[in-house]
Amino acid sequence: MDQFVKSLMEDFGAFGIALLMFLENIFPPIPSEIIMPLAGYQAATGQMSIVSVLVAGTIGSLLGIIPWYFLGYFFGKQRIMALAARWGRWMTMTPKDVDTADGWFRRHGYWAVFLGRLVPTVRTLISVPAGLARMPFALFLAFSAIGTAIWTAGLALAGYLLGQNYELIDAYVGPVSNAVIIGIVALYIYRVVTFKPAPARDDGRA
């Protein structure tokens, strides 16, 4: 799997990184925790600049969360809960997950969008309550961009620093990343198989 990610980056450069980060927000099995360190690692080997990696990762991730914002904006909480209950098996999203993200937003207000982008469990779903609350789109993008840039920069720079010693660690990068991805896919399959959504408390907000 790491070879697939690497080849996509090699073939399409920054666009490949942006595409992967976009898909990461739509379909969970290839997470940013794998994509961005590998992109940073490749930047360290001279295949692209670290700046292009950071910009592409941030833009791709932002594009991936916009549909979730408009899902909340146009659908309303009741229909999103029903969607999660029916199709959440494949998205690994339960009504309770929606409630958790909504609770984050209620507690922290607009800052929840920034903070949520730094927390793996709510990174994507925090966009839904932002849409539900009709948070101004420009403000949503601004807060999301700051949080996303910090998240992607941290991951990419970790890979970049490791890449400075790529001759020493190159033999380990493939097996380790494959093991991580296999574990993530296994967890995804487990969640699909054992998915049993419990109805979440609904405050009646449409």
- The best one-word shape is elongated
Helix proportion: over 70%
Quaternary class? single chain
Show unreliable segments: 202-206
Q: What is the average of the pLDDT values?
A: 76
**Using only CA atoms, what is the Rg?**
18 Å
Beta-strand level of the residues, as a percent range? under 5%
Distance between the termini: 41 Å
- The structural domain count equals 1
**Strand and helix order:** HHHHHHHHHH
Number of helices: 10
Largest sheet features: none
Q: What's the total number of strands?
A: 0
Structural class: mainly alpha
Main location: membrane
Organism: Aureimonas populi
Keywords: Cell membrane, Membrane, Transmembrane, Transmembrane helix
Membrane topology: Multi-pass membrane protein
Give a concise summary.
It is found in: Cell membrane. This protein has about 210 residues and is mainly alpha-helical. It has ten helices and no strands.
